[in-house]
Every structure is written in structure tokens, then in C-alpha cells.
Amino acid sequence: MRAVQVVTTTGPRDVVVQDVPEPTPGPGEVLVEVHSVGISFPDLLLSKGEYQLRPEPPFTLGVDFAGVVVGGDLEHPSTERLSVGTRVAGVGAYGGAGELVASPGIFTFPLPDSITFDEGAALPMNYLTAQFALAERGSLREGETVLVHGAAGGVGTATVQVAKGYGARTIAVVSTDEKAQVARDAGADEVVRVEGFREAVKELTGGRGVDVVMDVVGGEVFLDSLRSLAPQGRLLVVGFAAGQGIPEVKVNRLLLNNTDVRGVGWGEYAMRRPGYMHAQWAELEPMMASGVVKPPVGRTYPLEEFGQALVDLDERRALGKSVVHVRS
Known about the structure:
11 helices; alpha/beta; 7-stranded mixed β-sheet
């Protein structure tokens, strides 16, 4: 079968599509015929050898995928909602960017008919991260206000939609008109520019500030994000896409308004707790049914252009979730 592989960890331009043996599902795994693969930041880091997991090349990329169950261990407790023909989305550390993938049932989820394969490939990592960040780490409550940095990206649009699903008000932070439209289309209540966002937030909240900040950017926005928190607000640290180094906190700032800075490490937490991702998925299912969760798919690519999709992500050209088509 064809698969996208890293043969040398020299970056996305050097990933290749080549023939590899078909996977054999083990206990508790299903065999999925892959239709679409989501482009994810871990894929980019894996191609450079900069991810916390460092598999020995050659290995297959692909964190998020969607397709159809065609076999596997369907009698296992973790696969009880799955059968041959079930449309699914799945997530793994890597390995999904091939024509077939053997996916553990604990990381594989039935896909509603209202969600396309492209949308399904945009769901798992970003939306489960957003749900974990907002509910588990952010203690988000209905009626609160969430400020979302990088709001036109995959995690950003997911955060906007999941926050709306929990009944929160959302303020999206973007850098261009094009990205502003993506955030609005995702459902953001307000959209502000990154330049001067602190003042805009103050005005939009009547001087109170926001209850939660979702920060996937870091860098220069961090301090103003901290200053934008309402009393007992929570700043969620998800990543450092700005590439400007890791910001530091003078902890006396946290005392002034009883604010928190909380780390968000979904993958390690969820993968060590069998059944946790399915509980998260159950939280998202009514949001999908209502239409509030509907992943914005950005540019799509053929399998042979997986490396180019990663380059576009690396150079911050991606809007929404980029998706690669494995099958036409």
C-alpha cells in the first residue's frame, strides 16, 4: 500500500510517498481504509526529528485520519461501537497517512453521517485538545468569555466552536482580514486584531477582562493575555506557534487578581487513560449533532503533496485544518 514516510528527519520537503507492507491489526485494534488525513503540527515536528516521540526512520506520518472500518478485532470492549463499514475518525502518535491503518479502538471514534471524511480528519487532535483545555484545564462555565489566539488555525477554530458548544462567548484574535473571516465563519462572536488586542478586549468586556485565554501562540502576546484576564481568570498554555521563545511569568502578577496560568498537555494525559478519549468524544457528539461543531476545512492536497502541506503549515499559510486526500 502507499504511505507518506519520513526516511530522513531533514524536514517536510523530504517526506516521500512509497509502498509499504499493509498493517496487521492486533488485539483491540481495527483496520481502517483511510480516505482523508489531517495535517497536524506533530507531523511537521516528526519530519524534522523535533517531536518528543522520535521513531526510527523510515516511519509513516499521519496523526489524524478518517475512513471506513474494514476489519480487525471487533469483539474487543474498546471496539463495541465499531463494525465493518462504520465511518470513523481516529488519532495516533503517527502512522495514519497510508491507505490502511491499524488503529486502537480506544483512539477510534464513530463519525456521524453529517460529518464528511475531510471534516472527520480535522476533528480528533484539535477538537479533543480544545475540549480538554476548556473543560478539564480551563474549568469553563456557561456564560463565561473565552479569548482565542491563533483563532483561524486548526486548534483555534476548534476552540471557538467547542467554547460555543459549552455556552461561552468567544473573542477571536487574528492577524489578517482573511483570517478574520475564517474565525467568523467558525462562529466567533467577536474578532479583533492581534495588534492592540488587549485594548479591544477591555472595551468589549466593559473593562472586566476575559475568563479564559486559549494561547497557542506564546511569544509577545503572552503578557498582554495575562493582563486581559478577569479576576479568577485562567490562561491556558497550549503551544508556542510564534516561535519567539517560551515566555516567563512573574508570579506576583497572579496574586493581583487571583489568576492562573495552566499548562495544557492533552496527548500524554489522554493516551495514558484508556477510555478517556471516548468520554471526550461523547461530550462533542451533541455539539456535532447541533451543528456548532463543524470543522472548517482549509486547503486540500493529494497524497503526493503531503510534504507541501507541511511546508504551508510551517510557513503559517494554513487556514483552518489542511487535509490530504488518500483516496479520490
